[in-house]
Design brief:
This is DsbA family oxidoreductase. The protein is α+β, with helices and mostly antiparallel strands. It has nine helices and eight strands. The protein has helices at about 10-25, 55-60, 65-85, 100-110, 115-125, 135-145, 150-160, 160-175, 195-210, and strands at about 1-5, 35-40, 50-55, 95, 180-185, 190, 225, 225-230. The strands form three sheets. It has a four-stranded mixed β-sheet, with helices on both faces. Helix 1 (about 10-25) crosses helix 9 and helix 6 packs antiparallel against helix 7. The chain starts with a strand and ends with a strand.
Length: about 230
C-alpha cells in the first residue's frame, strides 16, 4: 500500500501531519507493507529565489491582521505542535522559496534517502531556525543524511530535478489538493489537512480492507447449527 503526502518544508501543519501519520502507522497492523512517499508542493512558488524575509509580519499583512494577533495565532499552533512532540519557534522564522529544497528531496529519493532528508529539513527549519532556501544551507543538511556533497552541489546548480517538482505539484492539483498536507492512499482515498492520527488510521484501514477483501470459501459437507445432513 502506498501513502503519498504532498507537503512543503516550511509548512507548520505539514510537520504536525507527518507526526500524526507516523502515529497512525505505529497503530496500523500492516505498517510494514506501507510505503510512504513525500511529494513536492510549494506554498508560495512565486517567492523570489535566493531571498528571505521575516515570516511574522509577512503573514500578518497577508491575512490583514496585526502582528500581535498573528503572534498569538502562532502560539496556538506551537501548542498544537508541542502535543506532537515538536518544538516550534514560529514568530522567529523566515520565509523564502523552497524550490531548491524540493529538488534536493528528489535527488535524495534516487538514493533511498528521501524520508530521512524530509525529516531533517523540517527539523532544521522549525526546531533549529535554520535556513532551507539556498545551496549553502541545504548542502550540510544533505550530507548529514548520507548524500554526497559534490553530487548535491551539481544537482542544485544544474537544476536537473526542477521538472520533478513541477510534476508533483501538477499531480496534486489533478487529485484535488488545495493546500497541504494532502494525504493520498493508493491514488483512491484522500485526506486534506493535518488530520488527527485516528482519522489517518481509519483511512489506512479502509484502503487495506478494500485492497484485501475477505474470500468466502464455499461450505463443505458438515453440520449447520444444531443439525447434520445425513
Amino acid at each position: 500500500m502506498r501513502v503519498e503526502v504532498w507537503s512543503d518544508v516550511v509548512c507548520p501543519w505539514c510537520y504536525v501531519g507527518k507526526r500524526r501519520l507516523e502515529t497512525a502507522l505505529e497503530r496500523f497492523p500492516h505498517r510494514d507493507q506501507v510505503e510512504v512517499v513525500w511529494r513536492s508542493f510549494q506554498l508560495d512558488p512565486t517567492a523570489p529565489e535566493g531571498e528571505t524575509h521575516p515570516t511574522l509580519p509577512a503573514l500578518a499583512a497577508k491575512y490583514g491582521t496585526s502582528v500581535e494577533q498573528m503572534r498569538e495565532n502562532m502560539r496556538g499552533l506551537e501548542e498544537t505542535a508541542a502535543a506532537e512532540g515538536l518544538e516550534y519557534h514560529l514568530a522567529d522564522g523566515v520565509s523564502g522559496n523552497t524550490l531548491l529544497a524540493h529538488e534536493l528531496l528528489h535527488l535524495a529519493a534516487e538514493h533511498g534517502k528521501r524520508n530521512e532528508l524530509k525529516e531533517r529539513l523540517l527539523h532544521a527549519y522549525f526546531e533549529e531556525q535554520r535556513s532551507v532556501f539556498d545551496v549553502e544551507s541545504l548542502v550540510p543538511l544533505a550530507v548529514e543524511v548520507g548524500l554526497d556533497e559534490v553530487e548535491v552541489r551539481e544537482a542544485l546548480t544544474d537544476r536537473r530535478f526542477r521538472w520533478a517538482v513541477s510534476e508533483d505539484s501538477a499531480t496534486a492539483i489533478e487529485l484535488g489538493a488545495r493546500g497541504v498536507p494532502f494525504f493520498v492512499v493508493d491514488r483512491k482515498y484522500a485526506a486534506p489537512g493535518a488530520q488527527p492520527a485516528e482519522v489517518l488510521l481509519q483511512l489506512l484501514e479502509r484502503a487495506w480492507a478494500d485492497a484485501h477483501p475477505l474470500v468466502t470459501v464455499p461450505p463443505a459437507d458438515g453440520c449447520a447449527d444444531d443439525t447434520c445432513a445425513v
